[in-house]
Write a sequence for this structure.
């Protein structure tokens, strides 16, 4: 009797467990049933689901509604605020993902290898409407994988009260910064985040100007993950230059300046120069600091200081349920200047559409200055192998900034990246 | 201990009769609750299961619901009534994740290998479709010929209207063009308006019009382009033909590989046997640092568990003293670190340890790069962890102390024991009987205390010569970086490592519990 009871118990629990996991899989029909009620009333056209980060949900809403009305469908804009790429991939795989995803262009490599997004066909006319840099960024393996809408890169922001003129070179910047520090007007020469793990994104323009490089190039000009250049002679020289700027040298780069405090320090007047992007401007304005924006300067006689360029993009999900609608929205609707302007107003990052940028220019000179600073920039490599670069690069940068052996650090970074990419 | 009813009956010499249980309110309420939850789960799960056609799962679900209903509606199977809820939760939250993790460890599930082979093939083929060079961008109007969906295509340059069907492209005459350059009416065809076309979006996506060089497919609802797939799967050779190929399916790696050894980006999930475990054991970047990381990990967990216990107990003893005044105020003050969210506190502590801007250096008037040197970074994370952890130990020790009669220590004092001796010989052993299991669980928790490291030092500082492993890395932060850092997400590998960590923690805990049992035998 007891044994049978136990058997029943075991069976029942197994069953529950099985349904527990079975129930999670097709969560969409249940989840969207509430929202799709108006859709069935409007038409049998179905639903178009867009996933966006919190700042973009509001501005997209009116356009989503207009698109929905025009096509007789319901458009849902859902807010995703954490681990967007991972959430999108997992949900897509389970079949509960969106039809359109908004994200950064450097996700493309990983999204493509996971079969999560489809190429988007833009007409020549549409392509011409985008800035060349934005279009280059969303092109992967010769295919355009989304509609770009905003471009962002870092620049040099300076406190015009302390430093009226844009520095001509890094040497010039350091000299002026050091003088301000000696005069007691600022505490730090330069606010550029380094932290205990380095920050490849912010230091990259200086590294590139010193001749450093991450990857070689394939015949088509894309970054080649098989040739890692972190340990190459030119990159070692670049790390040496970072060492010269670091704690044992000019003291411009410091590990105590981190991603959490660099903008705060600038806004508080603790440094006259800040290397950051459009996201810093809100804080700087709030603090009432008089500022101007110029490109990150290069070393005297060095290569151009090219920042990474990131492009915010609308992607068409491969496993979406309304693909024709998604393509229609991304290819023919997002490429619209009004949409770009609305998104810009919600979150002021320079629009990728040249026409929208011109409109913005009149009311917001900052956007154009940022755009200018990034005109020679390098689109952030979208290949999945880029994930292997960040940490070893950062640690080598940190070691150089602390005054360690730059050559050894570069060699170790090269080895770590090659090991991770199985290049040997 | 009270005698069981049945035993009383036997003792009285009457035959063992099963006593009829009284039906209490609690019994009725709990029965209704269990059945309601079962019914709710059933109702919630049925529509999606029907929608996806998972009939087996649906059958199992119904059987389970029926089983549970039967169990709680009958008067029999009393033990099962108590066992089932616990077992359900055990299976759902313990057994299932463990089994799932263990099975994942044998696959290459991760970025590039998330889906099935069929999904990979679809992604490869769709991803390789390129617009045929020089082909027009057709203005598209979906239309109906009878019940069949067809395309009305207008070449924007020549204004030539064509009819696209699954059979091919044929020129069409007599169509009327609107100002947008799209067909508004055509003889014998029903032109679909935007909402009508949107309602048939799936059909629109599916229709492919063959041409000499490729296929014309809709791009959205208002345009169509002629595309050519550069890659196509051939089931006969189980390979993908096309540029750079042929790419043969390699079922061991879950990739299509060509003769040069390159592979297509899109792969699929395959069983890799013990490869993930082998990698964890043989990869020099893992095995080379394993012992060092494990050693620090043990130190961190031990010092955290014992340190928080030591501090918590000392404070609890101080407040337990009968002559102590204002204990309530002190207790509230001491609980504060525990009441604040650890997540935020860890970040605050990290910033307080900043060399140039941190509070710690400013207060002490020193210039130490706390999180930048291995020794100080280790000290710092332990200090932070002690600060976060001791209130909990203080709480539980306070509780355990209340349960120790004061007479015992008083008796010890009368017998001439010093306070220290009384504590050492009487209070501490009695405390440990109650608290050792908590110490073990505290050890196990701190052994895998991901947040304490990831939110403060992120494992750093990292020696420049070996950027893979930092001075404060625990096994869990270290392997998290290996599994989710450089190579994208590698769930299979991460699962294999979790199995190893599980084994280590289980071993340590088992040994510790064994010792506790002996101790209990001594003091009980």
């Amino acid at each position: 009797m007891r044994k049978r009871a136990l058997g029943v118990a075991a069976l029942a629990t197994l069953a529950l467990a099985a349904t527990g996991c079975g129930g999670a899989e097709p969560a969409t029909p249940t989840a969207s049933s509430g929202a799709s009620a108006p859709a069935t009333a409007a038409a049998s056209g179905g639903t178009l689901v867009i996933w966006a980060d919190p700042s973009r949900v509001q501005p997209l809403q009116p356009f989503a509604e207009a698109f929905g009305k025009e096509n007789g469908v319901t458009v849902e804009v859902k807010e995703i605020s954490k681990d967007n790429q991972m959430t999108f991939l997992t949900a897509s795989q389970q079949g509960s993902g969106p039809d359109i995803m908004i994200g950064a262009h450097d996700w493309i490599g990983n999204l493509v290898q996971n079969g999560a997004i489809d190429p988007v066909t833009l007409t020549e006319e549409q392509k011409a409407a985008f800035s060349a840099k934005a279009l280059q960024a969303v092109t992967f393996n010769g295919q355009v994988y989304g509609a770009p809408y905003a471009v962002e890169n870092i620049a040099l922001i300076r406190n015009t009260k302390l430093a009226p003129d844009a520095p001509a070179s890094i040497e010039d910047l350091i000299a002026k910064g050091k003088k301000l520090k000696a005069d007691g007007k600022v505490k730090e020469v330069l606010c550029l985040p380094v932290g205990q793990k380095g920050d490849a994104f912010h230091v990259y323009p200086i590294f590139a100007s010193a001749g450093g490089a991450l990857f070689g190039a394939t015949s088509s000009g894309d970054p080649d993950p098989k040739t890692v250049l972190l340990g190459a002679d030119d990159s070692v020289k670049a790390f040496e230059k970072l060492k010269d700027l670091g704690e044992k040298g000019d003291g411009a780069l410091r590990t105590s300046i981190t991603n959490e405090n660099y903008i705060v320090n600038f806004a508080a007047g603790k440094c006259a120069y800040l290397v950051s992007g459009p996201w810093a401007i809100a804080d700087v304005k709030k603090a009432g600091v008089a500022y101007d924006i110029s490109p990150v300067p290069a070393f005297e006689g060095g290569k151009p200081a090219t920042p990474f360029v990131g492009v915010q993009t609308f992607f068409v999900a491969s496993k979406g349920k309304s693909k024709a609608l998604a393509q229609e929205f991304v290819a023919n609707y997002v490429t619209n200047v009004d949409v770009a302007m609305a998104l810009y107003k919600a979150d002021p990052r320079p629009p990728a559409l040249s026409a929208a940028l011109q409109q913005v220019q009149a009311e917001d000179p900052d956007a154009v200055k940022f755009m200018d600073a990034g005109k020679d920039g390098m689109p952030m490599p979208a290949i999945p192998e880029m994930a292997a670069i960040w940490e070893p690069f950062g640690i080598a940068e940190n070691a150089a900034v602390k005054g360690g052996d730059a050559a050894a650090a570069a060699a170790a970074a090269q080895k770590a990246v090659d090991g991770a990419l199985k290049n040997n | 201990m009270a005698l069981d009813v049945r035993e009383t009956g036997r003792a009285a010499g009457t035959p063992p009769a099963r006593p009829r249980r009284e039906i209490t309110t609690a019994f009725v309420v709990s029965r209704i609750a269990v059945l309601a939850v079962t019914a709710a789960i059933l109702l919630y799960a049925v529509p999606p299961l029907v929608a996806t056609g998972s009939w087996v799962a649906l059958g199992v679900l119904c059987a389970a619901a029926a089983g549970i209903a039967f169990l709680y509606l009958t008067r029999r199977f009393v033990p099962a009534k108590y066992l089932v809820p616990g077992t359900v939760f055990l299976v759902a939250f313990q057994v299932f994740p463990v089994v799932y993790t263990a099975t994942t460890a044998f696959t290459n599930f991760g970025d590039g290998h998330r889906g099935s082979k069929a999904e990979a093939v679809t992604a490869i083929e769709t991803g390789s479709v390129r617009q045929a060079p020089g082909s027009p961008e057709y203005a598209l109007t979906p239309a109906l010929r009878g019940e069949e969906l067809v395309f009305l295509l207008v070449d924007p340059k020549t204004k030539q209207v064509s009819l696209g069907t699954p059979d091919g492209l044929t020129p069409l005459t007599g169509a009327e063009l609107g100002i947008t350059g799209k067909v508004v009416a055509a003889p014998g065809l029903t032109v679909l308006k935007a909402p009508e076309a949107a309602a048939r979006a799936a059909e629109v996506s599916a229709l492919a019009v063959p041409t000499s060089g490729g296929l014309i497919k809709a791009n959205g609802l208002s345009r169509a382009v002629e595309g050519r797939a550069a890659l196509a799967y051939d089931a006969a050779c189980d390979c993908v033909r096309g540029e750079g190929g042929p790419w043969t399916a390699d079922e061991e790696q879950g990739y299509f590989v060509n003769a040069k050894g390159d592979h297509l980006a899109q792969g699929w999930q395959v069983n890799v046997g013990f490869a993930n475990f082998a990698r964890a054991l043989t990869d020099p970047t893992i095995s080379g640092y394993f012992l060092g990381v494990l050693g620090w990990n043990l130190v961190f967990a031990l010092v955290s568990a014992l340190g928080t216990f030591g501090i918590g107990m000392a404070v609890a003893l101080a407040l337990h003293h009968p002559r102590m005044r204002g204990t309530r105020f002190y207790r509230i003050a001491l609980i504060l670190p525990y009441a604040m969210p650890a997540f935020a506190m860890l970040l605050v502590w990290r910033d307080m340890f900043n060399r140039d801007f941190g509070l710690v250096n400013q207060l002490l008037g020193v210039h130490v790069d706390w999180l930048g040197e291995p020794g100080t970074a280790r000290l710092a994370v332990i200090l932070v962890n002690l600060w976060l952890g001791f209130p909990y130990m203080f709480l539980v020790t306070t509780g355990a102390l209340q349960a120790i009669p004061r007479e015992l220590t008083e008796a010890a004092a009368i017998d001439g024991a010093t306070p220290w001796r009384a504590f050492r010989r009487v209070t501490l052993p009695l405390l440990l009987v109650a608290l050792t299991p908590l110490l073990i669980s505290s050890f196990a928790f701190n052994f895998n205390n991901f947040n304490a490291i990831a939110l403060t030092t992120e494992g750093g500082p990292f020696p420049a010569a070996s950027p893979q492993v930092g001075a404060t890395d625990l096994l869990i932060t270290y392997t998290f970086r290996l599994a989710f850092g450089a190579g994208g997400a590698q769930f299979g590998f991460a699962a294999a490592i979790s199995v190893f960590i599980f084994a280590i923690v289980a071993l340590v805990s088992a040994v510790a519990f064994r010792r506790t049992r002996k101790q209990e035998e001594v003091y009980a």
